[in-house]
Predict the structure of Electron transfer flavoprotein alpha subunit apoprotein.
Amino acid sequence: MTVLYLAHTECDNTLHKSALETLTAAKALAEGLGTDLAVGLIGADTSAAAETIGGCGAKFYAVSGADFADGRYSSDLAAAEAIAKACSPEIVIAPATSRFSRALPGLAVRLDGRVDTHLSGIAAEDGKPVAKRWFYRQRMEGTLTREERPWILTLDSGCAEPYAGSGAADVQAVSVDVSSVRTKVAGMECSSEDAQTIRPDAALLCVAGAGWTKKQADGATHVDVAEKTIMDFLTATKASLGSSKSLVDISGEGGAVISFLTHMHQVGQTGSTPRHAKGLSTCCHGEEPHVVGWRFIKERRAINLDAGCGWAQGKCDVLYVGDAFAIMKKVNELLG
Ligand SMILES: Cc1cc2nc3c(=O)[nH]c(=O)nc-3n(C[C@H](O)[C@H](O)[C@H](O)COP(=O)(O)OP(=O)(O)OC[C@H]3O[C@@H](n4cnc5c(N)ncnc54)[C@H](O)[C@@H]3O)c2cc1C
């Protein structure tokens, strides 16, 4: 029996942190089940990536070449299928990257297996592989196992320690003919770090609430100042940006909006549940449907004009009762 770990390289031919995390989980599973571990790499040039994880004690396979540099369903699927057919695994584990999330369900169809995606863990229990997955927006963690094989699994980032163990790797090249594939990759457009304000790896979450767009003491709104203040803070700290539902909903109601906010930023019961170490809430009331999204954020601070706001009801560690426009302006000055 074999556990196959699949990874694709990044544009600089390295392996992403989430790929290294998944290798830790795959290796532990193979050891727990007492089975062989195989590594399958897909990318333009996989040799350096193979060496960075050469110490994992697996048999290595690779599909390499310019055709496999970028994510493309047909070539990623063909490569994964060829590697799987070379080692006939019972379990296939891969990081839940956008590339694999797209391609690997198709692998389950081709191999007549089953797929489970976005897992939060995988382990051997009583000689069986058991996967963990969050349900109901991370309120419940379920465990599941399946009898069907091959069982294809993708693991979310942040659920294991990244594997570290370089070494020489004896890689078996697997050739895949994708000359008949009609989809051509025209190029990649990456958003700049500053344009992308949702940063799951950031230490700090900064939440903007609807107060930023409300009439202030002078009777006027100052959305342009709010935008600049928030963006200056994010640029200086590289914090991740979150929002309350009220603020992201304003666009639908024709109000003045913070231009870089989308519904993807919404934190809360009907939004996301991020996992940053610290959180700073600004101009957000701290109502329960919002604060439930802070479940995993341990160190919490909030700035609000209202000393009786939701945050004051035991929902944050420090509440600064004051004007967020003035406080954040000062903070930005201090950050330089
Ligand atoms: C079923 C359901 C699901 C929901 N899901 C979510 C969810 O997922 N996420 C979510 O966020 N909400 C959710 N809500 C809505 C939630 O209950 C609140 O309505 C929402 O979070 C309020 O957003 P807010 O605090 O930004 O706005 P407001 O309630 O308008 O609060 C604005 C705050 O800004 C403060 N303020 C104004 N000016 C300043 C200033 N200059 N300095 C400092 N503070 C200032 C005010 O004192 C006020 O506290 C849900 C509601 C329901 C019923």
User: Anything to note?
Assistant: Residues 278 and 299 are 5 Å apart (CA to CA). The chain has a mean pLDDT of 95. The longest strand covers residues 36-43. The two ends are 58 Å apart (CA to CA).
